[in-house]
Amino acid sequence: MKVISTKKKLCLSCMEEHEVKRVEVQEENIFKGVRVKYPARYEYCDRTEEYLTYEDSIDTNDIAFKDAYRKEVGLLTSQEIIEIRNIYDVSQKDFSKILGWGSSTITRYENHQVQDGVHDDVLRKVASDPKWFMELLTRSKSELTEKAYYKYLNKAKEHYRRNRDKYLKESIEATYTKYEGKSHLTGNVDLDIDKTVEVINYLALNVPNLHKVKLMKMLWYSDNLHYKREGKAITGFVYNALPLGAVPEGYETLVLLEGVEYDVVQYDEYIGYKFKAPLDFKVEKLLDTEIQVIDEVIERFKNYTTTQIVNKMHEEEAYRNTPKYQPISYEYAKKLSI
Ligand SMILES: [Zn+2]
Question: 51 C-alpha vs ligand 1 centroid, how far in Å?
């Protein structure tokens, strides 16, 4: 018996006023042939040694019992169902409508009624697949108020972007596991994706017409100049020696992240990506030494054309001494031309 709290009150067991304990005890019960243990709460009278139910304890104890069963057989608990509904900030009634279930189905599932297996699968899919939720939402649009529909749609889009970002970040991190312990390639720091996005935006904010190739070179110069001075890079990027100079590994995935923005610009012969900082961009992670280095790199190269900066890179010891398509060591930073 675990004591949760005590309170002086009229005890309904001995009918006298005294400190009455509110306690939690382990109970056992059988549901659909499955025996489960669960925590149940009561008030307890020391004098009569009697357990009493109070206010909504019958309800909450029953939900605890059903949740223990749900866990035992691998179903979502009532709280997990509530959390899924909260992802989309949708009401119980509307959630039932969107799923095409009876109007009080969700309310019941969040309480005493144990959901059936098929509905449980549907709820899990809704949690992990916001695109599918959007399809269901569109299908039930006519049954929802316009305001509610757009609110849920926006929540679903937000959830979709978060999922996508999470997946993209994980895939970059997975690529980088092969560089663990190779600090000469990562510049003595672990790849910090959020910080990297910040560097890109800082450059985009201060360099007019910042295109892809030039951005990559400016990242390399920033990392290497900082390494030269402070013994460590800024981003943790590993750069490979490609024909147009240093290219950060994972770069193609990184630019798909939320928070990296660019305009697609049509030129005579090709399409270019012109990077721009988000309107609400502000420096949060960059250190003073890092900003100082990036500012110098900006000052030095902001007016360079892509060809000029590529040529500059081609003359660097680091590039000339690294076999094509191989990672460039930060050891060469001490011979950096800037
Ligand atoms: Zn009592």
Answer: 10
Report the separation in Å between the CA atom of 53 and the middle of ligand 1, taken as the mean of its atom positions. 13
Centroid of ligand 1 to alpha carbon of 13 (angstroms) = 5
pLDDT digits (tens, 9 = 90+) for 181-213: 999 999 999 999 999 999 999 999 999 999 999
Q: Ligand 1 mean position to 268 CA, how many Å?
A: 89
Separation of CA 28 and ligand 1 centre (Å): 25
Sign of the four-CA dihedral 30, 32, 33, 35: negative
List own/partner pairs for 258-262 with CB under 8 A and 24 or more apart: 258/161, 258/164, 258/165, 259/197, 259/201, 260/197, 260/200, 260/201, 261/201, 261/204, 262/204
Hunting for tokens 């092969």 — which residue is that? 178
Tell me the CA–centroid distance for residue 42 and ligand 1, in Å.
13
Q: 218 and 298 in contact (C-beta within 8 Å)?
A: yes
Q: What is the pLDDT of residues 259-303, one digit of tens each?
A: 999 998 887 777 888 999 999 999 999 999 999 999 999 999 999
C-alpha triplet 236, 242, 244: angle, nearest 5°: 105
Distance 11 CA to ligand 1 centre (A): 4
- How far does residue 57's CA lie from ligand 1's centre (Å)? 18
Q: The pTM is what?
A: 0.74
Which of left, alpha, beta for 249 (phi over 0: left; psi -120 to 50: alpha)? Answer: beta
Q: Give CA–CA dist 58/88, Å, rounded.
A: 30
Distance CA 233, CA 325 (A): 21
- List the Cα angle 244/274/237 in 5-degree steps: 50
Q: Residue 44 pairs with which residues in a beta bridge?
A: 21, 51
| The predicted structure's pLDDT at residue 258 | 87
How many angstroms is it from 18 CA to the middle of ligand 1? 7
State the Cα–Cα distance between residues 76 and 70, nearest whole angstrom. 6
Q: How far is the CA of 63 from the centre of ligand 1 (A)?
A: 27
